Every structure is written in structure tokens, then in C-alpha cells.
């Protein structure tokens, strides 16, 4: 519930910084002001930032010395989602892909489990809205296309996404692995705090280049013209097959929502 | 930025013809909600030669699926959804009198052209500002398709709902105009 009511301090700061940017358009500034006001209302009144309270995506990191007793982990997560979305007056947005019949309680969640060292369990709740998720893409580039090819693909994706994913956005990029691995890398890249530095100097430089190129397209907040379309670009990489260069882009709307708890 | 224009629904042809891409508009009166699932049913009714569940002449359709209302609220958060999913249906509704659409994101060329032909404008509301927008919605009534849950057709009474004209009846496009103004060539 909290992830849908409260916007992270890093996002609020990014809005304020963009508002102070001399180059930001008057329209862009007025949109950022409205989004700050929106965040204030949602936090004070405990109502969702956005009506699309998302698909409940839950990352669970299970310490290999931890022991789960009783119910299945996935059932417990779904019960939590059911209660949270019902008691929190969050929108139920999950349906059958063909009949479009709503499941009425926002379950099932997408549960992604990792085994990690230790005896704790970390749960990251990261709801994802439909508008921004529709702009996600996975592609398999030719290895010869290299970093330049990857950067061109990401910039092109942002250009095509335009106003759809509710900018100012965060852009998560995954490089390497396989088609399934790269999609997870791109999503997890979004969990990094805005303003944090990528420890890999090559990726850090690439993040800055891609961010500049995306914002130079001039789309701005809500795509109505301005300098701040993207607040940050975050890249994660993983080794890949000699025949491949997988790339995934996961665009997150301004309501960059994720919250974690360790038990 | 120019001063906003205040308009009350139903819109007249001259109201719509005066608007230009980039104009800020404060909407008042009743607007109707529908997303893709409802649009599919509305167009099916027209194809069967049947009447729509509400009089669409001069009206605006808002692409929204609100969050549930908390006790004491009129409606939960209610920002716009992405409009391209309604592109295949919108021209058909313009033919029978729809004068405006509210959403976010680019429209297909066919929708912009149909808007010029039939006198229908496309407005954008701020995507993701659902809690703020809900404040200008004063009354909500169910009109049709309750089984669609958040996607049902509802009649909303709004006061000074701020939107901006993206596509006017001359085929201008604010998204393209904004990009041209602020793009930096490297």
C-alpha cells in the first residue's frame, strides 16, 4: 500500500532539480509543480499517486539458511497482495488475457525468487503500471553493434515511447544474459536510487551519454516539450553468449515505486 | 503560457474550432469515461445500428479507469490512461458527434485526420497526477457496463479540470511542436 501512496525522496528531489533547471520549459515546470502537488496529496491523504496501482511484482531474496514453514511462499505473497489492494483501495487491474475478466483482487502477483547468502528474507514490492510497462522492449542485437548499437536502441525506444509512459521517466537497461535474464536486469536497474553512480566506469559514462541524448530530443515532462524527459538512465550488465548481444529496456513512469522489507 | 480557456460541456462546433494545440482548457460539466473494453462495446452497438447508452453529441470521453473511492471520497485517483489503445474506435465515435477526447500520448494519423473532418479535439491531462485530478471530479454516476469494473462507462461532473489541447481541428500536434522547440541537435 505504501509504495502506491508515497513517492521516494530521490524522485521528489529529481523533480525539484528539474524545476530549477533554467532550460526547462514553462510547461515542463508547471507539470513538475503539479506532480509535486499530486505527491503531497497522495502522501497526506493516503490515496494512490496514480489510479494505476499496477501489477504487483514481488522480488523475494531468500537466504539459503532461512526456513519457510507452513504456507507456500507464493501463496503468502498473493494473500498479502489481496489484502493490500483491497484494504488500501487500490485498483484491481489484473485480468484473463483473452476473456479480459478481472480477477477482482489484483492477484496473482509476479513473484521472482532468488537464493542469497544468510538466513534473512528480503521482499521487494515493485508494482508496475500498464502505460509504462507497455513501452518495455527486449531485443537481440548482433554482437558487432556493440555499445553504440545498444545506446541507439535505448534512445530510439524513448523517442517512440514519447508521452505514453508518463514522463519524467526512469530508464532501466539490461545488457547480456539471455532473453529472460536481460528483462530482469533491466527491471532491477530501476531499483537503484536516482543520482547514484554506476560502479562500472564504462557503464557510468554510457548512462550519462544516453541520458543526455534522450533529454536532447526535447520531449520534456509529459512529452509536451522541455528538457527533462528522463530523470536517470540505469544500466546493468551480465556476460552473454558469443553469438548474442541481448538488450532490454524497462521504462518506469515518474511514480517510481518500490519498497523493501527484510524479515 | 497563455491564460486558460474555460469551457462547459456539451461542446459546440465553434467551441472546438476555436481551440489550438497548446491551449490550456478548464473543463466544466459532465464528461464520460471509457477505455478500450468499453469502446469495443460502444462501437459494436453502432455497428448493429443500436443507440449508445448515453447521448454522445458534443460530449467528451475521458480515457480513465479510476481507483476505488475511499469512504468519504467521490472517486479514487483518476488520471488519464494511454490513448493509442482507443485509436481504432475513436473515428467511429466522432462520426456520431463526439467532440473531445482526454488521454495521454500520441494518436494515430487516422484519429488526427478524423478529428479535423468531424470537429473533435484531443486533450491531454497530466499522466500520473491521479490524486490531483480526482479533486476536480465532483460527482460520479455509473452509465453502463458495471461488469467491466474500473473500465465501466461513468458520467463524471468536473469543475475546472485542467487539460491541454494536443491535436486541434487543423491537424496541429503539440507533441511535435514541443519537441521542435526544445530539441538540441548534437
Q: Quick gist of this model?
A:
In chain A, 37% of the residues lie in helices and 21% in strands. Chain A contains 8 helices and 8 strands, in the order αααβαββαβαβααβββ. In chain A, strand 1, helix 4 and strand 2 form a beta-alpha-beta unit.
Strand content of chain B: 25-35%
Question: On the 0-100 scale, what is the average pLDDT of chain A?
Answer: 93
User: In order across it, which strands form the biggest sheet of chain A?
Assistant: 2-1-3-8
- Oligomer classification: heterodimer
What is the overall number of helices of chain A?
8
Distance between the termini of chain B: 28 Å
CATH topology of chain B: fumarase
Structural class of chain A: alpha/beta
CATH architecture of chain B: Alpha-Beta Barrel
Question: How many β-strand runs of chain B?
Answer: 7
User: Which descriptor suits the 3D outline of chain B?
Assistant: globular
Which CATH architecture of the largest domain in chain A is right?
Answer: 2-Layer Sandwich
Superfamily at the CATH H level of chain B? Fe-S hydro-lyase, tartrate dehydratase beta-type, catalytic domain
- Tell me, what is the CATH class of chain B? Alpha Beta
Strand order of the largest sheet of chain B: 2-3-4-5-7
> Which percent band covers the strand fraction of chain A?
15-25%
C-alpha end-to-end distance of chain A: 18 Å
Amino acid at each position: 500500500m505504501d509504495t502506491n501512496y508515497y513517492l521516494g525522496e530521490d524522485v521528489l528531489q529529481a523533480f525539484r532539480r528539474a524545476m530549477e533547471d533554467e532550460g526547462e520549459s514553462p510547461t515542463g515546470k508547471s507539470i513538475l509543480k503539479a506532480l509535486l502537488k499530486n505527491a503531497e496529496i497522495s502522501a497526506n491523504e493516503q490515496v494512490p499517486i496514480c489510479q494505476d496501482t499496477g501489477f504487483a511484482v514481488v522480488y523475494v531474496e531468500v537466504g539459503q539458511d532461512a526456513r519457510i514453514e507452513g504456507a507456500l511462499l507464493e501463496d503468502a505473497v498473493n494473500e498479502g497482495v489481496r489484502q493490500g489492494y483491497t484494504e488500501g483501495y487500490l485498483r484491481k487491474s489484473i485480468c484473463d488475457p483473452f476473456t479480459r475478466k478481472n480477477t477482482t483482487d489484483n492477484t496473482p502477483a509476479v513473484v521472482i525468487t532468488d537464493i542469497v547468502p544468510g538466513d534473512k528474507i528480503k521482499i521487494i514490492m515493485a508494482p508496475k503500471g500498464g502505460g509504462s510497462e507497455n513501452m518495455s522492449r527486449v531485443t537481440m542485437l548482433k554482437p558487432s553493434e556493440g555499445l553504440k548499437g545498444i545506446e541507439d536502441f535505448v534512445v530510439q525506444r524513448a523517442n517512440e515511447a514519447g508521452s505514453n509512459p508518463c514522463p519524467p521517466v526512469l530508464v532501466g537497461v539490461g545488457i547480456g544474459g539471455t532473453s529472460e535474464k536481460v528483462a530482469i536486469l533491466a527491471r532491477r536497474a530501476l531499483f537503484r536510487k536516482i543520482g547514484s553512480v554506476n560502479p562500472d566506469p564504462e557503464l557510468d559514462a554510457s548512462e550519462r551519454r544516453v541520458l543526455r541524448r534522450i533529454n536532447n530530443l526535447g520531449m520534456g515532462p509529459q512529452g509536451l516539450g522541455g528538457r527533462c524527459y528522463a530523470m536517470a538512465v540505469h544500466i546493468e550488465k551480465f556476460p552473454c553468449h558469443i553469438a548474442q548481444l541481448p538488450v532490454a529496456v524497462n521504462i518506469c513512469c515518474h511514480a517510481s515505486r518500490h519498497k523493501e522489507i527484510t524479515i | 503560457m497563455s491564460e486558460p480557456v474555460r469551457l462547459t460541456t456539451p461542446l459546440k462546433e465553434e467551441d472546438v474550432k476555436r481551440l489550438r494545440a497548446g491551449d490550456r482548457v478548464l473543463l466544466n460539466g459532465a464528461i464520460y469515461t471509457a477505455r478500450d473494453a468499453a469502446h469495443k462495446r460502444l462501437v459494436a452497438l453502432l455497428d448493429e445500428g443500436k443507440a449508445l447508452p448515453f447521448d454522445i453529441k458534443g460530449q467528451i470521453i475521458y480515457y480513465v479507469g479510476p481507483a476505488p473511492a475511499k469512504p468519504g471520497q467521490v472517486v479514487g485517483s483518476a488520471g488519464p490512461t494511454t490513448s493509442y489503445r482507443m485509436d481504432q474506435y475513436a473515428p467511429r465515435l466522432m462520426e456520431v458527434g463526439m467532440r473531445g477526447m482526454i488521454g495521454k500520448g500520441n494518436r494515430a494519423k487516422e484519429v488526427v485526420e478524423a478529428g479535423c473532418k468531424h470537429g473533435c479535439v484531443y486533450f491531454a491531462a497530466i499522466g500520473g497526477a491521479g490524486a490531483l485530478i480526482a479533486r476536480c471530479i465532483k460527482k460520479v454516476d455509473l452509465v453502463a457496463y458495471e461488469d467491466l469494473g474500473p473500465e465501466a462507462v461513468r458520467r463524471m461532473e468536473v469543475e475546472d479540470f485542467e487539460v491541454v489541447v494536443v491535436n486541434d481541428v487543423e491537424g496541429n500536434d503539440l507533441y511535435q511542436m514541443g519537441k521542435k522547440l526544445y530539441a538540441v541537435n548534437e
